Amino acid sequence: MQTNASNNIVMKEVESSQIHSIGHDPEKNILAVRFKNKGGAPSSLYQYSNFHADEFEQFASAESIGSHFHKHIKPLPELYPYERITIVTEETLRALQRLDACDLPEGDRALLAPAFAALHGASVIALPDELISRVRELAEQFLSVE
After folding, report:
1. Which residues of 7-35 are buried (b: 16+ CB within 10 A; e: fewer)?
2. Cross-strand partners of 46
3. pLDDT for 103-129, tens place per residue?
4. How far is C-alpha 55 from the geometric centre of its chain's CA atoms?
5. CA atoms of 139 and 137, how far apart (whole Å)
6. CB of 49 closer than 8 Å to CB of 80
7. What dihedral do alpha carbons 25, 31, 32, 34 form, nearest 10°?
8. Whether the predicted model's global pTM rises above the 0.90 cut
9. Are 49 and 30 in contact (CB under 8 A)?
10. Rounded to an integer, what distance in angstroms lies between the CA atom of residue 69 and that of residue 26?
11. How would you write 63-98 as a 3-class SS string?
């Protein structure tokens, strides 16, 4: 059993060729699914909204976790909106800290506002890939000269 740092959802490893582990937050109705890479190691983490406890019970107890996912969850993004969760690395965290002190364009500062708030103690549920990608781009642009 592992804990997913985003939302503190307890993850349970499952028997599946494609899915490493699953977890659920019944208060927020969030399903977490960590997939396996081609070598079978844990890889990408996705969170699906609007996923209720009874649906999670059906998913977790399915004869085939992977088949259930591909038949009842993946084809319904309008019912279960999802996002890929990126784990923030130490390098990205240091870049964020340094970017917070930079004179960034207003649009970038607004985009990064949740990340900057997290640096100063606010809780953040998840940082989308788009935000992490922009941190990396801005770090190259504003911090590469140091």
Report:
1. bebebeebebeebbbbbbbeeebbbbbbb
2. 33, 84
3. 999 999 988 888 888 777 665 556 677
4. 20
5. 5
6. yes
7. 150
8. no
9. yes
10. 18
11. CCHHHHHHHHCCCCCCCCCEEEECCCCHHHHHHHHH
